[in-house]
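Quick one:
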Amino acid sequence: MGEGLPGISRRTVLAALMALPATGALAEAPLRSPRPVPRGGRPPAEARRLSAPPAERIVAEAGLGGQVTFAVADARTGELIEASGAAQAMPPASVTKAITALYAAETLGAAHRFRTRLIATGPVRAGRVEGDLVLAGSGDPTLATDDLAGMAMRLKDAGVREVAGRFRVHDGALPYIRAIDPAQPAHVGYNPSISGLNLNFNRVHFEWRRAGGSWQVAMDARSERFRPAVTVARMRVADRQGPLYTYDDREGVDDWTVAAPALGNGGSRWLPVRRPAEYAGEVFQVLARSYGIDLSHPAPAQGAPQGQALVEHVSADLTTVLRDMLKFSTNLTAEVVGLTASAARGGPTATLGASAARMGDWLRARTGVTGARFLDHSGLGGESRISAAEMVTALVRSGAVDTLRPILKRIDMTDANGRTVANHPARVAAKTGTLNFVSGLAGFVQGPSERILAFAIFAADLDRRSRLAPEDVERPEGGQGWTRRARAMQQKLIERWVTLHAG
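Output:
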C-alpha cells in the first residue's frame, strides 16, 4: 500500500495520519458480496492496478531532484491509502493558505465582514464637519479605488461639503508590517506592506511610455472606473544597465528608480506600496475633490477615532473573501485574515511570525498536528514547514471536506501537452503552492465513485533554491521548466489515485 522512502516507516505515517473511528457501515461486515470475477479475466482491482503506473516511476520521470513527498487518505475516515516520505517536513508555499482559510473561517465565522468608515470627530452643521474627518480601516484586504469613490459620493450625498479640521487616516486595527517576506526583491507586487488600512492589495500602478528621446511615467491607483494619480510613490528613469529597480524610503514617499534599457517602448506593472494608509488617504482625498469636497493632505489619526460614522463601506462576507484568496492566491488577503483571526483569539500580534505561531497552536489543538511551523499566513516565506502526512491529517480532522472543499479552486486535469481534458473523471479541488524550485498541491479529489480522497504533494529542491543569486530570484534559470514538470507529476499521481482508489 504505497511506496515509502527509505527511513520512513509505515508506522510513522500512520501515527501522523491519526485514524478516525469507524462508524456505521465502516464498522460492520460488507452489505453485499464482492463482484464476481469474469471467467478467464482479472479481478477489477487487479486490472486497475496494472493500468496505473507506479508512483516511483511517476516521480522519477519528473526529474525534479531534491525531495518529493506525498500522502493520500480517505477524506471521511482518515484511512491512509498511499504515502511516500510523508513524515518529511517540507515548505508548503501557498498551500499554507488552505490552513489559513480554515483558521480564519472557524475563528471569525463565515459571515464576518470588514468595515471601512468615514468618521466625523465633531458634529456636522450646514454641511461642515466641525472637527476632523477620519478614514478608518479594519484591515479590509479587498478595498479598491472604486470603493473609495463610492464612499466619497455617499459623503457628498450626506450633505458634507467642508471639513473644519484635518483629514486623517487610521490603520491601527492591524499592526503595520513593512513587507510579508523581507527576503523578496523590493519591486515584486506580491510582497506588499500590511496595515489596518489597505488599498488595491497595497499596490500602485506604474506605467511608462517613450516620447521622443525621453520617458513619460505615471504612478496611479487605477481601477475599472478611475485613475487617480498619487504622490506617495514616485518613479525616476535611470540611465543604467542594472539593477532593474531600486527602492528608497525618502522624503516621506516610496522613491523608485528603473533602468531605462529594460523599458522598451512602453508598458506597465504593479509595484508594492510601503505606506498603505497614506496611499489610501491620498486616493480618497483626490476622489473627494472630484465630488467638490476639499480635504487636507492625509495625516495619521491620534489613536482610535471617536465620533459619528458618516459613511461605511462593507466588504463581501468572509466566505467570498476566502474563496477569492484561494483562487487568486492573494498574499495580502491571507495575511490580513490570519492577523485578524489571531487578534480575535487573544489580542493583537505585532508580527506575522507571532500570528502564524498562534495559527499553529490552533492547528495543534484542533487536529493534533504537532510538527507544522508557519512563519506567515500566505506561505510566501520559504522557511515554513509541514509534512504531507500532517497536511492530510489537517484536512481530514478539521472537516475540511465539507467546509474548505466547496471554496477551493477547481484544478483542471490536462493532457501531455498541457491542454484541459474535458469531462475528466477526476474532480480536483485544491490549493497550489509555488516558490522557486518548490511546488505543492493539497486538497481533495473525487473520481467516478462517491469516495473523496484528501491528498498532499510537496516537492522541493532546496539546494538549488539556496544557490540562487538575488538578481535571479524573480526569474531563475530553469525555474519555469521545473515547475511545469512538478505540476505534470502532480496530475499523474492524482490520476493514479483515482484509477486505483476512487474509480
